[in-house]
Amino acid sequence: MRDVPGHQNHADHVRRKPLAPLPDELSGPVRDFVSSLRRMHGELGYSLKELESRLPASRSSLSRYLRGQSLPDERLLVQWCTLSFTGEDRLPALVDLLHRAQEAADAGAQVAERDGTPDGETRVDASAASATGSARLTVHNVERDCQHRRTENCALGLARDPYQLYRRSNVVGHVWHGEVLRAVCRIANGITVTDEVGGHSSMWFRVEHDGDQVWMPAIRIRPEQVENTTLPGCPG
Hints:
By secondary structure, the protein is α+β, with helices and mostly antiparallel strands. It is about 30% helix and about 15% strand. It is built from 6 helices and 8 strands.
């Protein structure tokens, strides 16, 4: 049987150094995600050095993800899972756990800021933190075929003006399913946008993207985040 590159899972790829136990203070959704990630990583069998050569992440970053000190983005998680025969099957569950972990990290960061928790304490680091006066929102594409593809056909547009038609002349950037945007405010009376399954909304979020502030329709954000995110109205 011919070997399949990138999906080896052979006995000679046993991880040479076992992972240290997770700290007791790591709990909740973050611990659930990291525990599942470690199980997948253990079955894969690569050392961090080997993994570094196959993923767009440094050995130190990979180590932090496996210790629960920071969280990977969804694109990296997808690439990580595709290195394994079984990883793609467990990807939807891992993505859901990652979203829950990101939300829990945001909530913990906001509490830490209110309480004046100094940097350096054991918690998920700044890559999973949220600033005061903003919220992390996850891009959601209702088309299942686009939820694991970063192609032109699966791109979702960011708009210059939420009161103008949502079409190419008003699009100033693109994002894909699973990307995380930082929103600073929202409006409820923008142009109505309808998705591929008939959902529609006139709510829009002002988000930061490539150093600019642009607009994302709420219908392209994870529904539970739209419902539960508290942000001020954008100034007129």
